[in-house]
Amino acid sequence: MAASKSISPFRLSSLLRLQKDPAFAFKLFRNPNPNPNKTFRYPLLSYDIIITKLGRAKMFDQMEQVLQQLKKETRFVVPEVLLCNVILFYGRARLPASAIQTFQSIPSFQCERTVKSFNSLLNALLICREYEKMREIYLGIDDFGSPDACTYNILINACCLRGDIEQAWKVFDQMQRNGIRSTVVTFGTLINGFCLNNQLKEALQLKEDMMRIFKLKPNTFLYTTLLKGLCKMGDLTLAFGIKDEMVRNKVILDAAAYNTLIAALFKAGRKEEALGVLEEMKEHGCKPNPATYNVMISGFCREKDFQEAYKILNGMEDFKPNVMSYNVMIGWLCKEGKWSEAVDLFQDMPRRRCAPDVVTYRTLFDGLCEWMQFKEAAFVLDEMIFKGFSPVCISMNKFIDGLCREGNFELLSAVLTSLAGGNVLNEDICKTVVSMVCLKEKSSEAFELFDTLTVP
């Protein structure tokens, strides 16, 4: 949309920053001047703002148009950090080839590639889990500078995510030999790797070495990582020891740390202690977040105390229940055979101003099929398809199998028609229907269903 009157370059940057709609911001960027014969001198700030907005919105075609325009600019030097952000946008979108291409194109912006953009590329490839490509690219690091702490942290993280702790240690040792000082991030990454691989003893020892030898103070992330690992292993005594250490060292316990402890206590059947941690959380000025309430709902459902779970769902103090809250509740109700209550809660979601998502539909559909409530399941399936969602194949096969075993071919025919209308009917479903009907030796029903499967 063209602007009605000329605006200054400074004003354009301000307008772009305030504009929440990236598509409209892009139109404004492309047409800031109503006079086509007058050259508009874009400031670097405007490029930075619009590229960031488009990258975050995954509007990569438009972002590339802006980048091509930026290449032609001669009035200023394009900062490397701007292109680093582009590389990371592609990484977060799981587009490793585009991240590599952007890195390779940096010289065309009259910008030098350094270890900073090299690290951005390594991180983007790590997000995409392109481990072999990371190794291949790392071999050429000497062309861009010497590896720094960030480089080694990324490489250590890659080793940990692959479960190769031995190689992570080798990278750590190489870091020390090259005189690169380890950071809290380095130790946090290694400790996270140990926890992911259930090596809690080694994780705790590394935390002690970090403090005693390297004189580094653990941060909230590192402590919370240890808490999660210990709670996962069911060692609540050590977990609360870590919590107490955080308090002594004046490290802030965030909602994630408290939520981890609350969930572990519920899982261990220590409901009263979990409620005590919730109160402590509030007393220390840490407000419960939606995840806290979801943990509580799941905890009470695990105890089969659905009355208390409903109280939390209906009485959240600071937040409106989100769809995950309902999904947790519906999942547990179905698991315990309370499918009728699950259906009621599902139907009440619109009144509560919370729209069901694909997980809601699949959870309820799976639960109804599990308890052989095929008529109710058919209604949920029909609405699911209308909303553009599709069921999991295993659940769909179980549903069709159940209808065939009951001999309910009338409902099956209606379901197949609905599936065909929503383009969800596939070859596997057709094979299941034909095989099950043939087993029933119902020739007339078989021909009628065959017509449903073949008539467009």
Coarse morphology: globular
Main pleated-sheet profile = none
Total of DSSP H or I helical runs spanning 4+ residues: 26
The portion of residues forming beta strands comes to under 5%
Helix content: 55-70%
Number of strands: 0
* Amino- and carboxy-terminal Cα gap: 43 Å
Radius of gyration: 28 Å
Mean pLDDT: 89
How would you classify the helix and strand content by structural class?
A: mainly alpha
Q: From N to C, what is the helix and strand string?
A: HHHHHHHHHHHHHHHHHHHHHHHHHH
Can you tell me the residue ranges where pLDDT is under 50 for at least 5 consecutive residues? Answer: none
Describe this protein's structure.
Among the domains are: 236-285, no CATH class; 288-356, no CATH class; 374-456. Helix content is 69%, strand content 0%. The protein contains 26 helices and no strands. It has helices spanning 9-18, 22-30, 44-56, 60-71, 80-92, 96-105, 115-127, 131-138, 149-161, 165-177, 184-196, 200-212, 220-232, 236-248, 255-267, 271-283, 290-302, 306-314, 323-335, 339-348, 358-370, 374-386, 393-406, 409-421, 427-440, 443-454. The radius of gyration is 28 Å and the shape is globular. The protein starts with 8 loop residues before the first helix and ends with a helix. The model has no long low-confidence stretch (mean pLDDT 89).
